[in-house]
Fold:
Amino acid sequence: LTVGLFNPLVARGDWTFTRDFLRAGVGDFVQLPPSDEEVVGCLATAEFRAQRPAAEGRVVAFFSQQGGVGTTTLAVNTAYLAASGNKPGSVVLCDGAVQFGTVAAHLGLSPIRDMAAFVSDSEGSSAMAACLTDEPTSGLSVLAAPRSPLDGTAITPEDMTRVLIELRRRASLVIVDTPPTLDLLTLAVLDSADRIMVVTDAVTPTILGTASLLAILEAEGLGGDRISVVLNRFSSFDGNLSERLVRERLGRSVTHVVPYDR
Structure:
């Protein structure tokens, strides 16, 4: 187990500090000065991981800078379909919208424990199993967002990174829904992702915002082949751009087109 000693007084909220540790292979984070519970939890995590073979699943993040374009709907349905017919627990859906996430509601679930419970549990990685909720018809495992928005504000980029590190060691595929906010927490998700599904629609204001988003992701080293553009709710209604114009405005190809269908 490689552990990063994270000093918030040094980092001062700079995500690049944590990103450098993550890209160097850090597997957990302990803030300085660590409490006794944190040290015990870290050791328990090391023992827990040593007792099982390493499993590195893929992380796929769904993100849009624009709310209301169907990002959560696509994330939930993709996870549900990916889990159906596979071994139960092999696909995990993580709600990265930590303040007002609706993944559990989309699936009709009422989780007893959630991401906040895992982050605050001194048992470390071994606590994750109890924080996952199973969707009974598909075998999909769900890590729900905190039930209280106030609990969500306490989750840090380091917490989110720890969550995704643990989930990808448990499942072959981890799908993450994110809020339409490019903050440090979302950057933590995108930096951990193997694939970023950028969701947009064919309305001019949304496309202009998506073009700006893609430029930012490229500047952050998160562009290139990691990004797939999903043109959602596509139709020929008046006011909608054609797929050709969308490609021209974005300066890149559209990977998936999902037609509008009530």
